[in-house]
Amino acid sequence: MAVKVLIVGMDVATMTLALMLELAGVDYLLLEKSDSVPAVAGGMSLHPTVLPLLEQLSLRDDLLFFSQPMEQVLVLDSDMEHITTYDWSDRRIRYGAWSRFMTRPEYCSIILEKLTESRVLFNKDIASIATIDCAEGNDRAEGLPLVMVDNRQDSMLDIDITMEKGEARGGVTVECTDGSSYTGHLLVADIESGVELRFHDSNKPTPTGSEWTQGGRQEDYPVNHAATTKRPTSATTTTTANDTPAPREVHYHVSGVTEALDPQRIPLLKEDTTQFRLVLDDRSSLSWWVATLVDHRIAWQVTQRTRLSDKTTGQQADADWPLEDEEAAKASIMSQMSQSMMCPLGGTMAQIAQWTFPSEISCKRWDDRTAPTCVNSNNVPHHSRLQLLGEACRKVVPILGQAADESILDALSLAEAIVALPPSARLVDIREAFARYRKERTSRREAAIRESQDLDQLLNAKGAMQKAYRTVKLNYTPKCTQERRMDEKYSFRPQANFLQPVPDYGQIQPVHQHHRSRRP
């Protein structure tokens, strides 16, 4: 029986994974609770690390049409005085491709067009998820294990549980609010879909009789405490043994894409390369960037960065404790986009916001708490058949496109692990595949976290001392040192080992992934 993968939630990572599985001939089903692709409004950068892979996925022509090359990034202060310039003009020669800039919705829509229509289902809101894995000698009737879903017993008759070499195989079943259900061998979910809140793993001790509550006992099923723990909305807050640590730093990112604008009014829109401008404001907690798009639109983002004191946990909260609701945070930041907040492409950020439809504005929260995962501190899976994907899976500060790149690379590594599974995959095979995936990505993930934190501290930290350090660091670091760091980063240009390779045009030779096992 061929391996079948259920994918819940649509974002950059999960849709890239779906396309790779499609091209590899792996059976999959993509479920989304909205009626269309719910991509976050705003722009995204794609760097040389992922561009060879995207060419493998037959996205090259679409990217050339919907994106523009980025040759440089200008960093300015709030008075529009120049701080530094990141020169990326040699990336095409050194690494084979320029970095490119486009919107997230367009990236996801491009991929959607390449997926088999019957394998993508919208309006599928997840009600519950259950796994089933039984060992030989199970004492249940006819060897059919039972699970409790929504406080009732269901025989999982549609799951392959035949015995092979003394071990039974099982699967994971997703039940939707419309009454439909879908079964696969493993589940991959967007980390922001809230899947873990609905996940019941039969590998945990099975409660019986009066021990059952709605969907099972809470303590029997580990959940994403980061998602369930309420952030403080009153003057006080407490922590318990199950709570994640309180964040010490919080960012709210309000992003948008304007309507098509008149290039006579904003001449930089005429350029055939993306004009990216990053503004650092030493007089407030805000920073912002704007970037031109292919069709005379402007992608923009305003970030509010709040540093929290240690005493906010368990005591009187500081007045600057971040808002819990992202809509409220968006309204607060939008209200601060005054006529004095200059847009480095021309006009003001208040005008940019006025030229943006409300449906094209979104808000995301980032904080420095540990990201939820599917494993505990001993690297033992909470859920044997679940793997989370998405930019929030690691604490990479979303700056200059690094988070999007890393999530695409996550999707590649996971796809290779899935494609390498035997056709009749047992639970032990899935566990080993997930373990290889985590091992392969750990070192790069940690390096990306450190790099993003250093870059964020360099660009966004406030104060006279930090401003002086920033000026020296950005303008007097030797070019050879900068090039060596970039070569180390962008020499990693992996391609999928289960697809036909494409030529690499970079002068700096690519370094490939360590794990290169192929599908048997």
Question: What are the SSEs and their pairings?
Answer:
Layout: E1 4-8, H1 12-24, E2 27-31, E3 43-46, H2 51-56, H3 60-66, E4 68-70, E5 72-77, E6 82-87, H4 91-95, E7 99-103, H5 104-114, E8 120-121, E9 126-132, E10 146-149, E11 152-155, E12 163-164, E13 167-168, E14 171-176, E15 181-184, E16 186-190, E17 199-200, H6 225-228, E18 249-257, E19 276-280, E20 286-292, E21 298-307, H7 326-336, H8 349-354, E22 361-367, E23 386-389, H9 402-419, H10 427-460, H11 464-476, H12 479-490
Parallel strand pairs: 1-2, 1-16, 2-8, 5-19, 9-17, 16-23
Antiparallel strand pairs: 3-7, 4-7, 5-6, 9-14, 10-11, 12-13, 14-15, 18-21, 18-22, 19-20, 20-21
Helix pairs in contact: 1-5, 1-9, 9-10
Provide a descriptive summary of the structure in words.
This protein has 520 residues and is of the alpha/beta class. The protein has a domain at 249-309 and 316-367. 27% of the residues lie in helices and 22% in strands. It has helices at 12-24, 51-56, 60-66, 91-95, 104-114, 225-228, 326-336, 349-354, 402-419, 427-460, 464-476, 479-490, and strands at residues 4-8, 27-31, 43-46, 68-70, 72-77, 82-87, 99-103, 120-121, 126-132, 146-149, 152-155, 163-164, 167-168, 171-176, 181-184, 186-190, 199-200, 249-257, 276-280, 286-292, 298-307, 361-367, 386-389. A 7-stranded mixed β-sheet has the order 6-5-19-20-21-18-22. A 5-stranded parallel β-sheet has the order 8-2-1-16-23, with helices on one face. A 4-stranded mixed β-sheet has the order 15-14-9-17, with no helix packed on it. Helix 1 (12-24) runs parallel beside helix 5, helix 1 (12-24) runs parallel beside helix 9 and helix 9 (402-419) runs antiparallel to helix 10. It is globular. Mean pLDDT is 77; it is low at 135-168, 201-243, 310-321 and 514-520. Residues 199-218, 225-247, 500-520 are annotated as: Disordered. Residues 226-245 have a biased composition (Low complexity). This is FAD-binding domain-containing protein.
